[in-house]
Design brief:
By secondary structure, the protein is of the alpha+beta class. The chain has nine helices and eleven strands.
């Protein structure tokens, strides 16, 4: 979509940020208190006569990035995705996803990789969990790898960050045990509060071979919080605004029921098997 930045206004020098902000606010009909931060322009690789401008929207304790392309005279913008037919359609997302040192299950060389950004207090994530852990595992035939990344929604879920920190503490100590923690916390989500979270996690640890003293120290010192923060920053850079959000071979999509997820996986397998 191409839009003029001004109606009958005289030509302005390239990228007047105030004009761009005013236009974007009007275009999207923002409600409430939305902060708009506009980065400096960068040359566009695929649209030579345009520059890339990243616009960050901050509202209700969350952030969302949108990429605009601004013409050389600053009078037109393009909002949308630009694709390189020589690359995977979602390569830009794949380039931003960090998979090293993250909880995962399934073969590392699987043709389909699903990255879930999740929140342990999120009811919709609770619904998605058995689809990934049971339906998918039972029927994927070793063709799918699942990676979990934290995206606690602090503004609406008061104990989600603490749970994310605890989960990373478990992962630090015993990587396979993380998935036991993942299953357990969603199974018991409705029983957990901010006040009893640590007590319940420690009781779970005692029955699952996790060193309670080491885990307790990690939780108390918030030793894994920086790892959670990095995951949150990555989610925001990818435009994640809610949970669960899945990236299926880089394709961003919301939580899916099993028949829909099954269909997307089938399409990805067909695409990759065709050598694309």
């Amino acid at each position: 979509m191409v839009s003029p930045l001004a109606w009958a206004a005289p030509a302005k020098s390239f990228l007047d940020k105030a004009t761009l902000e005013s236009y974007v606010r009007h275009l999207d009909l923002f409600r409430g208190d939305v902060t708009v931060k506009i980065d400096d322009p960068k040359p566009s690789k695929y649209l030579p006569s345009f520059s890339e401008v990243l616009v960050r929207l901050i509202f209700n304790g969350t952030e969302r990035d949108e990429l605009y392309y601004v013409s050389a005279d600053g009078q037109a913008i393009v909002r949308g995705d630009v694709f390189d037919l020589g690359k995977q359609p979602f390569q830009a997302n794949l380039d931003k996803l960090t998979l090293a040192d993250q909880p995962s299950f399934g073969p590392a060389d699987a043709p389909v990789t699903i990255v879930e950004f999740g929140d342990f207090e999120c009811p919709d994530c609770k619904l998605e969990a058995p689809i990934l852990r049971h339906d998918l595992t039972a029927e994927s035939g070793g063709k799918v790898r699942v990676v979990f990344k934290n995206y606690p929604l602090d503004s609406v879920h008061p104990w989600a960050r603490a749970a994310a920190i605890a989960g990373r503490c478990v992962y630090r100590q015993d990587q396979p045990a993380f998935w036991k923690f993942y299953d357990w916390i969603y199974d018991h989500q409705e029983e957990i509060t901010g006040d009893n979270l640590k007590t319940k996690v420690m009781a779970w640890a005692a029955g699952n071979g996790v060193d309670a003293a080491q885990l307790g120290q990690c939780i108390d010192t918030r030793a894994s919080e920086l790892e959670v923060d990095r995951s949150i920053a990555e989610a925001r850079a990818l435009g994640v605004s809610g949970t669960p959000t899945l990236f299926i071979n880089g394709r961003k999509i919301g939580g899916l029921m099993w028949p829909d997820l099954q269909m997307v996986i089938k399409k990805e397998l067909e695409y990759t098997s065709a050598g694309r």
